[in-house]
Specification:
Length: about 270
């Protein structure tokens, strides 16, 4: 109880209201909702698990079968969480003065009190855009600058190679382009710009685990349910390697030697 009270009292962000921040974190966690549901054997194998790949992975990464299965479960969950994290980063700026998150177009607009408007495309990782996507984004920014020469356009990267605020240089149709009004900016620099606080992003990162733990301890959000994949595989065969191969290859030549009981269990899980 004392630990919960302490968590309730800790809040170190002075540019976002505490209740607003907690609601935003709660909404982000709820965006994880589907991924937090229990993963059973049917869901685990919905795209047919490749037991040969897992055999290599287990040997080369020196993992147990249970560890490899749990890593595959984590990988499946993680694929669906990218949008939730994008929601977290983008919509945080709804809570910050002079920032706007439009329903379409650019991800964020910062209306600088000095009269300058900054239009933002946000990416989680600096290397997530391929060449075509980068050119399309850059051309869109060029068009905006041509129509609004007093504005700036930023590509804000959460996971940039380093803290930076540089002109975005790019080849478009084999022509080298550089405009000081079109920039690549790491998220720490962007937070500093919009809040006036040099360590604003650092404060967000420090507060986040405290707020998440508070919401969990107060039962305001759910966490992942217990998965049943390993137990169900063991019902097919105590040998997890054998069970994994049966999932993929039960009708293949040579696998018919396994008992009808095992095949009945497979039918039970997948019919």
């Amino acid at each position: 109880m004392e630990e919960n009270k302490n968590l309730n009292d800790i809040y170190m962000i002075d540019f976002i209201n505490k209740e607003d921040f907690e609601k935003h974190v709660e909404k982000t966690i709820k965006a994880y909702d589907e991924a937090l549901n229990k993963i059973d054997l049917k869901k685990f194998n919905s795209n047919i698990i490749d037991p040969i790949k897992l055999t290599f992975d287990k040997a080369l990464y020196k993992k147990t079968w249970i560890e490899i299965i749990n890593l595959e479960i984590f990988r499946q969950r993680d694929k669906s969480n990218t949008n939730a994290i994008g929601y977290f980063h983008q919509n945080m700026f709804k809570l910050i003065k002079n920032c706007e998150v439009p329903s379409e177009g650019f991800d964020i607009i910062f209306h600088n009190p000095n009269g300058e408007n900054i239009y933002v495309e946000m990416k989680n990782k600096h290397n997530t855009m391929n060449a075509n996507s980068s050119q399309k984004t850059y051309i869109n920014m060029q068009h905006h600058i041509l129509r609004n020469p007093n504005d700036k356009c930023f590509l804000v990267e959460v996971l940039a190679p380093k803290s930076r605020n540089i002109a975005w240089e790019l080849c478009v149709d084999k022509i080298h382009c550089k405009d000081e009004r079109i920039r690549r900016v790491s998220i720490d620099i962007f937070y500093e710009l919009v809040t006036g606080e040099r360590d604003a992003f650092y404060k967000i990162c420090n507060q986040l685990p405290i707020t998440i733990e508070k919401l969990i301890n107060n039962n305001e959000v759910k966490t992942a349910e217990k998965d049943t994949v390993v137990e169900e595989l063991k019902n097919i065969s105590p040998n997890l390697l054998e069970a994994l191969y049966l999932l993929a290859f039960e009708d293949y030549i040579g696998f018919e030697k396994f008992s009808d009981r095992i095949k009945q269990l497979l039918d039970q899980y997948f019919n």
